[in-house]
Amino acid sequence: MSKNISKKKPLKQKEALIGVLNAVGAFLIWGLSPIYFKALAHVSAFEIVLHRMVWSFLFLFPIVVFTGRWKEFRAAIADLRTLLILIGTTLLVSGNWFVFIWAINSGKILQTSLGYFINPLINVLLGMLFLKERLRPAQTASVIMATFGVIYMTFEVGALPWVSLFLAFSFGFYGLIRKTATVNALVGLTVETMLLFFPASAYLFYIGTQSAGTFLAINITTDMLLMGAALVTALPLLLYTAGARRINFATVGMLQYIAPSCTFILAVFIYNEPFQTAQIRMFILIWLSLIIYSADSVIAARSGNRKK
């Protein structure tokens, strides 16, 4: 009996390690993706998003078929309610991608970092407003502190950080609405990219005939980067899904800050974006709110495990 228990422990530890490595890989790709899209700065954000949809679908669809999820994919398309939900999430995710890419190539990487730092707190707020979830005192304090930080920067700088807020809220609503669709993450993203595959392909073909497109018009590097946007989209999702299955939610919650931390480092130290005093103070408030939020999540997860 004791031998069986001792065998199970290394297996669980190995699974947890694989899960952490997968999740870290996903968040690193997301966090370092500005480097990739900066290499496509000569292409409009709108055209990049269209290519991202087209090539992502062509990359994801065979994976769905070969992993035995074809029936699930067909069922999602056939069910009107699921399809309508995924149409809504497609609009949200495509808008999120567009603003993210536009911001990167407009010298606003710091704002994208802030957007994904405050995203967990926006999720808490949306859960309270739409799912009637009760906030713990620490969660309430985190949301208030983050809100104060954004308001403070708005008054100090004289401009609302709309990029950050749009990214945080669009991704927050994306997650909220996706919860209502009973489809696997891979299948859901495949359907979402499929919904824009045909109009995106048609538009890209049209601008190509008008000599207004960049694909097959500049150089092979640009063409490969546009096609490779599928990997930047799908690979981290596959890694994240594989990782999240093997580790607990609290660990995933802590690891998710790798992505905006990488983006923050790129913005300040690599791309030399201006980092004003008001921004420093706001980020300090955001980081403090996230420390409170993360500590509260870990404590809640541990107490839940003890009760079990």
Describe the SSE topology:
Elements: H1 2-38, H2 45-66, H3 70-78, H4 80-104, H5 109-130, H6 137-157, H7 162-178, H8 185-209, H9 220-244, H10 249-255, H11 258-270, H12 277-307
Helix pairs in contact: 1-9, 1-11, 2-4, 2-8, 2-9, 3-8, 4-7, 4-8, 5-6, 5-7, 5-11, 5-12, 6-12, 10-12
Account of the protein in words:
The protein is 82% helix and 0% strand. By secondary structure, it is mainly α. The longest helix has 37 residues. The chain is globular, with a radius of gyration of 21 Å. It starts with a helix and ends with a helix. The relative contact order is 0.19.
List keywords for this structure.
308 residues, 12 helices, mainly alpha, globular
In short:
With 308 residues, this protein is mainly α. The protein has 12 helices and no strands. Helix 1 (2-38) runs parallel beside helix 11 (258-270) and helix 5 (109-130) runs antiparallel to helix 11.
Termini separation comes to 22 Å
Total beta strands: 0
Give the percentage of residues in beta strands: under 5%
- Count of spatially separate domains: 1
Following the backbone from N to C, one meets helices and strands in this order, namely: HHHHHHHHHHHH
Total helical segments: 12
